[in-house]
């Protein structure tokens, strides 16, 4: 059973079509990397898969469940790392993670373990608004994987992270995490290295959909011209 | 559900304790309004209908400040989406937000009612305070439920600061009318009992909007 199966997915914002004609199938354990210029529909695709946006046409199945009909059965099985951290600025890293742990029914010990893994145990008592963007991104990574989701939806996951921090979160959201992943990226070399399958979007439409081994960096660069 | 409500309520109160954005603003607004009434009416004291009207209108406008802030922290950094991704009953958010708003209203009244008695009210509240607390509690329930419903509706729009009060005010009008009528005898020179008819009206209104909010809230959170 594919982890993600899309047939003619379309999504509009008012009159504007943000996503249209997207069809693909992603097997469990595989990684799909989505490339495309700003406004191409990458984040919209992730939000549809996360059940935050309803598809306006086509069929969407995530982890075997049709959306939006069985969205309730998908929530809690996906982890979304979005552009916004989905955290509260006035709460500390620990309070934020504990809040999400309670919502997901996760033991609070896991929060401490994750704070260690993202090396924030010493700053975990400070409100998020006092942390750097890179640190907040590390907390956001911890939040996204807190409940050990089967499907990770990662919107430019390494944005705001320096190379050391990027390496730090790799066991959680990289290939080593051994989860099904849908990742958006603007970095062709890194993206291709992470991908089993590549989707290129241009103005909300698929311009490229192939196995990663059959795609070159030059073809991805072409999407941005 | 109880655990989710507790987690959400705890988060609400922690954010308010850190930011102090709702309760102090609401209280300061109420105090300032009483001072304005004191000078605008050019009377050293008020009682009966006038006193009840001033008290309820002031509390209502102060409550709107709290309603407007209710979902701001959730909207700012995507915390709202974080909640929507969790496998929990979404009605828990209605309950937690309404409880938080109810608590803010109680805290507001702990400041505003003594200030009102000191600055404007002629008759003493000594004998009628328990009844007044009961009437205020019924009004607060309605304001908390309607305020949460309206705030949830407004927060996902660009004009949320304008839409919240515009939607809330007409829905609060029956609460002000019933609350003021019920508490008017309590603020009269000789004191008295709250009018049962208006208490029943308040109670029914609370119940009606409680049911409407429960039925609609899930739908409001959907894309």
Can you give a write-up of this model?
The complex is a heterodimer of chains A (225) and B (223). Chain A has 225 residues and is α/β, with parallel strands linked by helices. Chain A has a domain at 1-77 and 186-225: 3-Layer(aba) Sandwich (Rossmann fold), CATH 3.40.50.300. Chain A has eight helices and ten strands. In chain A, the strands form two sheets. Chain A has a six-stranded mixed beta sheet, sandwiched between helices. In chain A, a hairpin with a 2-residue loop joins strand 4 (57-62) and strand 5. The model of chain A has no long low-confidence stretch (mean pLDDT 92). Chain B is mostly helical and 223 residues long. Chain B has one domain. Chain B contains nine helices and no strands. In chain B, helix 6 (91-119) crosses helix 7 (129-155). Chain B is globular and about 55 Å long. The model of chain B has no long low-confidence stretch (mean pLDDT 90). At the A-B interface, helix 3 of A face helix 1 and helix 5 of B.
Quick rundown:
The complex is a heterodimer of chains A (225) and B (223). With 225 residues, chain A is of the alpha/beta class. Chain A has helices spanning 42-49, 71-74, 93-104, 108-117, 133-145, 163-173, 188-194, 217-223, and strands spanning 2-13, 16-27, 31-35, 57-62, 65-67, 78-81, 151-155, 180-184, 197-202, 205-211.
CATH-defined topology of the domain at 1-77 and 186-225 in chain A: Rossmann fold
Average pLDDT of chain A: 92
Output the strand order for the largest sheet of chain A. Answer: 6-7-8-3-9-10
The quaternary state of the protein chains shown equals heterodimer
Structural class by helix and strand composition of chain B: mainly alpha
- The CATH architecture term of the domain at 1-77 and 186-225 in chain A is 3-Layer(aba) Sandwich
Biggest β-sheet of chain A, characterized?
6 strands, mixed
The CATH homologous superfamily of the domain at 1-77 and 186-225 in chain A = P-loop containing nucleotide triphosphate hydrolases
Helix proportion of chain A: 25-40%
**Spans where pLDDT lies below 50 across 5 or more residues of chain A:** none
Low-pLDDT stretches of chain B are: none
Give the termini separation of chain B: 22 Å
């Amino acid at each position: 059973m594919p982890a993600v199966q899309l047939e003619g997915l379309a999504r509009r914002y008012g009159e504007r079509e943000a996503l249209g004609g997207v069809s693909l199938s992603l097997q469990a354990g595989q990684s799909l990397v989505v490339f495309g210029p700003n406004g191409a529909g990458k984040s919209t695709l992730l939000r549809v898969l996360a059940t935050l946006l309803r598809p306006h046409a086509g069929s969407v199945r995530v982890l075997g469940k049709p959306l939006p009909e069985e969205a309730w059965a998908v929530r809690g099985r996906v982890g979304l790392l979005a552009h916004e951290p989905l955290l509260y600025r006035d709460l500390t890293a620990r309070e934020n993670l504990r809040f999400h742990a309670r919502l997901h029914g996760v033991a609070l010990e896991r929060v401490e373990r994750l704070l260690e893994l993202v090396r924030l145990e010493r700053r975990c008592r400070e409100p998020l608004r006092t942390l750097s963007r890179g640190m907040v991104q590390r907390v956001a990574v911890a939040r996204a994987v807190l409940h050990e989701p089967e499907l990770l939806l990662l919107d430019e996951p390494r944005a705001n992270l320096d190379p050391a921090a990027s390496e730090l979160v790799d066991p959680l959201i990289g290939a080593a995490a051994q989860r099904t992943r849908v990742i958006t990226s603007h970095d062709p070399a890194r993206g291709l290295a992470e991908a089993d399958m590549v989707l290129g979007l241009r103005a909300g439409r698929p311009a490229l959909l192939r196995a990663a081994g059959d795609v070159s960096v030059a073809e991805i660069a072409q999407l941005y011209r | 559900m109880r655990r989710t409500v507790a987690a959400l309520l705890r988060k609400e109160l922690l954010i308010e304790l850190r930011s102090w954005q709702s309760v102090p603003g609401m209280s300061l607004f109420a105090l300032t309004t009483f001072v304005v009434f004191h000078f605008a009416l050019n009377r050293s004291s008020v009682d009966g209908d006038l006193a009840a009207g001033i008290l309820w209108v002031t509390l209502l406008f102060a409550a709107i400040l709290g309603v407007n802030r209710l979902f701001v922290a959730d909207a700012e950094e995507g915390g709202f989406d974080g909640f929507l991704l969790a496998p929990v009953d979404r009605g828990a958010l209605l309950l937690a937000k309404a409880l938080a708003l109810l608590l803010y209203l109680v805290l507001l009244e702990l400041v505003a009612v003594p200030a009102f008695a000191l600055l404007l009210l002629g008759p003493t509240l000594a004998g009628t305070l328990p009844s007044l607390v009961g009437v205020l509690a019924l009004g607060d329930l309605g304001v908390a439920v309607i305020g949460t419903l309206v705030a949830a509706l407004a927060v996902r729009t660009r004009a949320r600061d304008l839409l919240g009060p515009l939607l809330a005010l007409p829905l609060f009008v029956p609460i002000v009318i019933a609350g003021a009528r019920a508490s008017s005898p309590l603020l009269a020179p000789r004191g008295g009992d709250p009018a049962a008819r208006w208490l029943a009206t308040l109670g029914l209104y609370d119940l009606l909007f409680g049911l409407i909010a429960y039925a609609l809230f899930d739908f409001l959170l959907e894309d």
